[in-house]
């Protein structure tokens, strides 16, 4: 199937459609899919770019409708040349960025992760985001009910010093060999509807 400049292909298999809750197995491969046509409305509010993916899993139907809590999936996702709109998610960090609040709009070349879906939780492992300004690594979960729990590390641009108040002298101690400061972040809570 062609979607804008991208494509998606896959298979569905149902062993017995006559049972009351049939189990459907699937696999799909997507290339250059636009985020706004490929993911939930919620995710497309926070993410721009094109998606390459390979996912397989299963789900069951109840009364002919998809039962979201039954979805089980495993795969790899890569989003290219995009932006994570994180201003709301990282609002408490903004005060430390001084004149670089543009860093809350996280530009990237590649954003990849391994994903699993199980019992209403979208789990992200091996997250890696490589951008022109910042690089991110981490893992976490987002539930279908909107609860988020992530542990991340953000590497700031080389030579950039965040607004640390009276603790700015610590910046040089925290710099790595490339002149970058890595900041650990924990993001937890309820996402907006």
Separate helix tally: 3
Determine the mean pLDDT.
89
Cα Rg: 19 Å
How much of the sequence lies in strands comes to over 45%
Structure summary:
The protein has three helices and eleven strands. It has 193 residues and is mainly beta.
Descriptive labels:
193 residues, mainly beta, eleven-stranded antiparallel sheet, 3 helices, elongated
Written overview of the protein:
With 193 residues, this protein is mainly beta. The chain is built from three helices and eleven strands; from the N terminus they run E-E-E-H-H-E-E-E-E-E-E-E-H-E. A hairpin with a 2-residue loop joins strand 4 (47-62) and strand 5 (65-66). The longest helix is centred in the first third of the chain and has 6 residues, at 41-46. The two termini are 30 Å apart.
């Amino acid at each position: 199937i062609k979607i804008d400049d991208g494509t998606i292909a896959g298979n569905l298999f149902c062993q017995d459609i006559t049972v009351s809750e049939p189990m459907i197995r699937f696999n799909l491969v997507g290339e250059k899919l636009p985020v706004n046509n490929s993911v939930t409305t919620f995710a497309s509010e926070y993410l721009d770019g094109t998606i390459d993916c390979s996912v397989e899993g299963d789900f069951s139907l109840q009364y002919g409708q998809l039962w979201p809590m039954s979805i089980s999936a495993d795969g790899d996702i890569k989003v290219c040349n995009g932006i994570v709109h994180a201003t709301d998610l990282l609002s408490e960090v903004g005060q430390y960025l001084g004149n670089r609040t543009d860093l809350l709009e996280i530009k990237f070349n590649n954003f990849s992760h391994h994903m699993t879906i199980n019992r209403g939780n979208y789990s992200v492992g091996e997250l890696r985001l490589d951008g022109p300004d910042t690089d991110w690594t981490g893992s976490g979960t987002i539930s279908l009910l909107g609860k988020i729990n992530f542990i991340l590390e953000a590497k700031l641009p080389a030579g950039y010093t965040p607004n640390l108040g009276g603790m700015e002298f610590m910046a040089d101690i925290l710099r790595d060999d490339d002149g970058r400061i890595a900041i650990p972040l924990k993001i937890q809570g309820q996402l907006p509807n």
